[in-house]
Amino acid sequence: MTISLEHISKRFQRYWIFKDIDCAFSVPGTYALLGSNGSGKSTLLRIIAGMQAPSLGKVVYTIAGEKADHNTIFPQISFCAPGMEIVEELTLREFLSFHFSFKKPLRGFSKEQIIETIGLAGAADRPIGDYSSGMKQRVKLAQAIFSDTPVLLLDEPCTNLDQQGVDQYRSWIEQYTKGRMVIVASNDIREYFFCKEQIALENYK
């Protein structure tokens, strides 16, 4: 599977955030979108995911050599961002049951095994709205990393995590992302330590 960016540019009102990004991502591969705050990392990641339209250019998704539309690509992509909404009225068990009705979990993982792996078994029957910000971030990461998708998109994945949470993230990346396309939007080396290729958005102003 390949995701190709063809002359992607994004403008907010009169200001260009980035211009003429032309590159491709493939499975397997690990990529970092780098830049300071406000450089457009999160915006570009949403464009890659098909969640936001570019001002100019287009995103081309290819599966087994054939172009695919967004409806086809949706089940292939997992996404995590600090600002993404999760249904906080649900318990963790209810939320994961809901999530995995749309996407399959990684092979060998049940819902209960995922809850144990992320260290939230003791809070699995509490509403997610009662969780701390760090616990909520672990849930957001879990629904993305433990979904059986070839593409994993992570926006500032260690936001709100303490050192134990960062270590947990590192372990999940090392164990569960082999053979996948992983794209991380970040300016923190702890989040993209494993990425083989880097794209600096300052080069596209």
Structure characterization notes:
The strands form two sheets. The chain has a five-stranded parallel β-sheet, sandwiched between helices. A four-stranded antiparallel β-sheet has the order 2-1-4-5. It has one domain (30-45, 75-204): P-loop containing nucleotide triphosphate hydrolases (Rossmann fold). The chain has 205 residues and is α/β, with parallel strands linked by helices. Strand 1 and strand 2 form a beta hairpin. The model has no long low-confidence stretch (mean pLDDT 95). The chain has helices at 41-49, 70-73, 92-99, 111-117, 133-145, 163-176, 189-192, and strands at 2-12, 15-26, 29-34, 56-63, 66-68, 77-80, 151-155, 181-186, 197-200. The two termini are 28 Å apart. The longest helix is centred in the C-terminal third of the chain and has 14 residues, at 163-176. The relative contact order is 0.21.
Strand element count: 9
The count of helical stretches stands at 7
Give the uncertain stretches in residue-range form: none
**How would a textbook summarize the main sheet?**
5 strands, parallel
User: End-to-end span in angstroms?
Assistant: 28 Å
